[in-house]
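We emphasize that the prediction below concerns an isolated chain of 141 residues; any contacts that depend on oligomerization or on bound cofactors are therefore not represented. The input was used exactly as deposited, without trimming of termini.
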Amino acid sequence: MTIERHYQPVPQPPNKHERMEIRKKLGYRKVQGFTPPAREGGPAYLTAHACFDCRKSWKLSEESEATCPDCGEEAHYMGRSFKAPKKSDVKQWRKVELLWLAGFRFHTNTRSRKIAPYPEHLREVEKFILDNPDHPFREKR
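Result of the prediction step, given as a token string:
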């Protein structure tokens, strides 16, 4: 004699979409239309500019007329990766100014190419400038 067993399928819990619909019907989930905030069309990037007389730097758009708000002199384009020294560190500011006058800018190195790092001290700047006439971050004059 064989006993026939009838298995009833185990009820499956509702999937995510069904759960969301249940929540909406019960009022637990209010779905409102999403409106992204309006965005003003500003500059794509802000880049560092520096005033060597005041020993200050600001991030400005490349299109803006870069003048120092303190002394009114030109604020020089430095590049996106420029980190300003402390205002009291006169030697480092002089180093940055000499590099800038020689055409060097402070761009991001993606490390995909081997390039000579900028000097750390003022005493090394002159040799660095002479040794790197074709440095990739040096503007051609």
